[in-house]
Amino acid sequence: MPSRAAQTKNRRSRMRRLGESAYGMLLLARAGLMALIALVLVVAGVWTSWDTATTAMTGNERGTVTVKKCGDDECTGTFLNEKTSKHEKVTVSEFVSGGKGETLDVAVQPGTDHVVRTGPAGVMYAWVPLGGALLLASLVIAGGLRMRKTALLTGVCGALIMGSAWALLSF
């Protein structure tokens, strides 16, 4: 059996043990904060995309719009409702409109005169904010949480959403 002097020599002081546990708590707090930031980014992306995406996927008032005039960010045109054959003046994002003279399948956002493109291109474009949020969250996951494979998967998913929206809108 070791002597009492040998036992106290191998023992860590109370301050050192307290310091080690405080450092562990700081590491845990940092990981929790980074996970919370990544979660907030993804939730914000879903929140931003949700209204437009639900309209693009399941909008009640559907029809076609013929683009007449384009401004800086928006184009205006005539909306022809599928059911009532009623004509209205509506606005659509210039990026999805394709330019003057184009005819697009759209759905009207409830309570507005703004229309959202439907079909695969419109649905993917509606989820672009989520794709951007996934890209940002992947940086937080890689840098703050040191989870490189998860970050890579998250970033690839975000890039696929954004890339597929661009590709579908280009054709």
Fold blueprint:
Layout (H helix, E strand, L loop, with lengths): L3 H7 L3 H45 L3 E9 L3 E8 L5 E7 H4 L5 E6 L6 E3 L1 H8 L1 H17 L3 H23 L1
Antiparallel strand pairs: 1-2, 1-4, 2-3, 4-5
Helix pairs in contact: 2-4, 2-5, 4-6, 5-6
What do these coordinates show?
α2 (14-58) packs antiparallel against α4, α2 (14-58) runs antiparallel to α5 and α4 (119-126) packs across α6 (148-170). The chain has helices at residues 4-10, 14-58, 94-97, 119-126, 128-144, 148-170; strands spanning 62-70, 74-81, 87-93, 103-108, 115-117. It has two domains: 38-57 and 118-171; 60-116, Beta Barrel (OB fold (Dihydrolipoamide Acetyltransferase, E2P)), CATH 2.40.50. The radius of gyration is 27 Å and the shape is rod-shaped. It is built from six helices and five strands, in the order ααβββαββααα. With 171 residues, the protein is an alpha+beta fold. Strands 3-2-1-4-5 form a five-stranded antiparallel sheet. 28% of the residues are buried.
Helix content: 55-70%
Number of helices: 6
Mean pLDDT: 90
The sequence of SSEs as H and E is HHEEEHEEHHH
Rg, alpha carbons: 27 Å
Side-by-side strand order of the widest sheet: 3-2-1-4-5
Determine the structural class based on helices, strands and strand pairing.
alpha+beta
Kindly state the number of beta strands: 5
Main β sheet profile: 5 strands, antiparallel
Question: Span from first to last CA?
Answer: 82 Å
**Whole-number tally of structural domains:** 2
